[in-house]
Amino acid sequence: MKLNQLIRGWINYFKIGSMKKLCEKLDARIRTRMRMCIWKFWKTPQNRAKNLLKLGTDKGAAMVTAYAGNRVAYVCQRMVLSFAINKERLTRFGLASMLDYYTERCVTC
């Protein structure tokens, strides 16, 4: 909720400027950081593998990713986690997309 308020406030303040590329980059960074928070929240490799399987990844990829060690940033930038926790899932979870909100509100698109 706080992150959505921050995104909306920032876009409403800077909507006059042309910042589509910046919104794309920041949106990708925000999604990566959210994946990192979710990955840390799952804590154990067993939990991580179980949750990756629930999200639709195949068993081999889930096991390799879950037991990759404690390299959170490395794991969260891999395709397996990007597929499992994609933009649509984060939107359903409640995260507002910076780029989508900018294209709704911008003046000079």
Report how far the terminal alpha carbons are from each other.
27 Å
Biggest β-sheet: count, sense, barrel?
A: none
| Cα Rg | 16 Å
- What is the total tally of β strands? 0
Into which percentage range does the β-strand content fall?
under 5%
Low-confidence spans: pLDDT under 50, at least 5 residues? none
H/E topology pattern: HHHHHHHH
Q: Work out the helix count.
A: 8
- Globally, the shape reads elongated
Helix content: over 70%
Structural class based on helices, strands and sheet pairing? mainly alpha
Average predicted local confidence, pLDDT? 89
What report would you give on this structure?
- The chain has helices spanning 2-14, 20-42, 45-54, 59-66, 72-76, 79-84, 87-93, 98-105.
- Helix content is 73%, strand content 0%.
- Helix 1 (2-14) runs parallel beside helix 8 (98-105), helix 2 (20-42) runs antiparallel to helix 8 and helix 3 runs antiparallel to helix 4 (59-66).
- The protein is elongated, with a radius of gyration of 16 Å.
- The chain is mainly α.
- The two termini are 27 Å apart.
